[in-house]
Amino acid sequence: MSITSIAGLYFKNRQRQLKRHLNEGETLQREVLSRLLNRAADTEYGRNHLFNNTHGYDDFARNVPVNTYEELKDAIDRMRHGEQNVLWPGKVKWYAKSSGTTNDKSKYIPVSHEGLHHIHYAGGRDTIAFYLMNNPDSRIFDGKGLILGGSHQANYDVPGALVGDLSAILIENINPIVNLGRVPKKQTALLSDFEVKRDRIARETVNKNVTNLSGVPSWMLSVLVRVLEFSGKQSIDEVWPNLEVFFHGGISFTPYRNQYEQLIRSSRMQYMETYNASEGFFGIQNDPKDNAMLLMLDNDVFYEFMEIPGNAQDPEESSENIVPLWGVETEKNYAVLISTSCGLWRYMIGDTVMFTTTNPYKFIITGRTKCFINAFGEELIQDNADRGLAYACEVTGAEVSDYTAAPVFMDSNARCRHQWLIEFIREPKDIEQFAAILDKKLQELNSDYEAKRYHDITLQHLEVIKARPNLFNNWLKSRGKLGGQHKVPRLSNSRQHIDELLKMNNE
Hints:
Elements lengths: L2 H6 L3 H7 L6 H16 L3 H5 L8 H7 L5 H12 L13 E5 L8 E5 L1 H22 L9 E4 L4 E3 L7 E3 L1 H7 L3 H4 L2 E2 L2 H4 L4 H12 L4 E6 L1 H15 L4 H4 L5 E4 L8 H7 L6 E8 L2 E5 L8 E3 L5 E7 L14 E3 L8 E8 L6 E12 L2 E8 L3 E2 L6 E2 H15 L2 E10 L8 E10 L4 H15 L1 H7 L9 E4 L4 H8 L17 H10 L2
Parallel strand pairs: 1-5, 3-6, 3-7, 7-8, 8-9, 20-21
Antiparallel strand pairs: 1-2, 4-5, 9-10, 10-11, 11-16, 12-13, 12-14, 14-15, 15-16, 17-18, 19-20
């Protein structure tokens, strides 16, 4: 009997429990809300917002305001200084450092003991549970898992308190038994210098029996390329012949799929998307034939959804049209709000989703609440951009490493356009043809973009600028954000990021 067969017994009970997600979504979510309110009733936030007198969702929505990071920032900072029972019972010692939709350089998301185990580790457990359910012949535990993480550092002067990438927090606190099946060694995994870390990972793992990968697609790709360089092999499955799955999340996999399929040629290789963020672990691709993910409904996260108005008003400026899970509809774009056992209450995480089914509740990530272009009423979201690029690459044979796009605002002749800065792994033979295909596909995917492009009256043909090699990594490095869970902003209404990148591109 293989090690995986024995380890798989641990997941049997959870696999039975997960079946409740198929038709008991509302019940599961009501149970979670009740549990969270009872646990936090005697915290400062719970007392101020009448948790003891909150009986059900309607009371909760009435008593608790919608929050962004700015509303909770002062409370979180007090917690970081050691105060107890503020947003969640007891003292919270871990904080996931994250960039995102905030006016500050970084957000510090509290990670309580309960949140660590009942949300983040629970999400990892459930991912494996689904994978084994779909792959009964798996040998995943007969080898090592390459887990790509970030780093952490001291949090003020509070003893035992640290801040860092969520992945570093997970590695730091991982069960010693689980640690036996993981590479690289802990000291390497937590290095802050990504370039040094990448080389050490390659050296430490090239002769190991790696069966599974976990991490952000862009950073994992960089590691795999270094492994090939170090090994002298032509494909990753020559280095790790028993590799069978990549559990990926953090950014869209669409722009990277072709590159992975070229690096890993094994026909049995699988790719399983997860929706894990600093704020929680929210979704899993439970069916390999369906790109949509199943929303995880019983792991200490209560969800609400704010419909994004048709005029693409910033959802953070309005609290109208908020519904609990059982009020969502398919084919509508929603901003996600969460309440969790980490002390986040009706917190807008900055992501947008669209449900594909409601029985069970399955969804796709469509972008960010502030990661879109709507300078001229075109309402272009990241899902449109990723799909448009994938199509243009398919037609032209190009491969994209990274990209960002922003508006070029109207000149004196009322002419405006979108400007795309794209770093190619394989350039198209004709950059103008690539731009034309992308522009046409975006019109097919987005009726508002199509309307604004009509006869070039409002919005002119998009522009594609070729980025020099490693531009985006160099830009992230200059901002101290190379590696970990840091991402290149894909779409923006502002030109701040793209102008910084264009300046570096021309140097």
